Amino acid sequence: MSVDPMAYETQFFGFTPQTCMLRVYIAFQDYLFEMMLVVEGVMLKKLDGIPGCQVSPSQIRKCTEKFLLFMKEHFDKLFAKMEEMLLQLVLNIPKNVLLPEDRVHEQYPYSKEEFQALQDELQQLQQQCRAEAAVEQALLAELEEQKAVKAELEKILQCFDGVENICREHGAGNFKESFALLTQNSKKLQDVLKEVEEKSKKMKQHDQLM
């Protein structure tokens, strides 16, 4: 069998020429084996009809196998010549023939260096697309988070509005002013508590010394 990959022929036919020849070889070989079995069967019937014949079926099988080996050796030689001729004259595309789907390469020829540059540029563009997609996903996630925060803030504002309305109903005045006053009083209360804690510590230390 030929070792030439014949890639262009494979592109045109849709199968490798070597595969085609191998299938033809197997088909011929199977037919040869079947023919030998038929010949052997005919010989057994003919000899069985001859009175006093001393030829046994095993002897006939040995003769059939020898004849099959002889035929196969000659068949292999003939097939090798046929395969060479078919691969060169029938299943071969001449070097000057260009397939229709490859004519674009003739119109727009590219060197290996130019093709590699295009490949590198394509790879860079793919990386940029992946990076932009990641950024887009991050922005969408941040947008969803902002929506959640906005919803919580709206709830807090609604709560403040409710408290302010309650304050107005009970004559507490402006809610913002009340809230600021409450914050100041809370800070003063924290200072007083801190002062009380310090005095309490000093008293405990004095008691321990006494």
Automatic annotation (TrEMBL):
Q: Give the coiled coil ranges.
A: 108-209
Q: Does the keyword Cell cycle apply?
A: yes
Kindly give the InterPro entries that the UniProt entry links to this protein: Centromere_Mis12
Q: What is its main location?
A: nucleus
What single Pfam family name could you report for this chain, choosing any that match? Mis12
Which family is it part of?
Belongs to the mis12 family.
What is the name of this protein? Protein MIS12 homolog
Source organism of the structure: Panurus biarmicus
Q: What is the lineage of its organism?
A: Eukaryota, Metazoa, Chordata, Craniata, Vertebrata
Gene name tied to this protein: Mis12
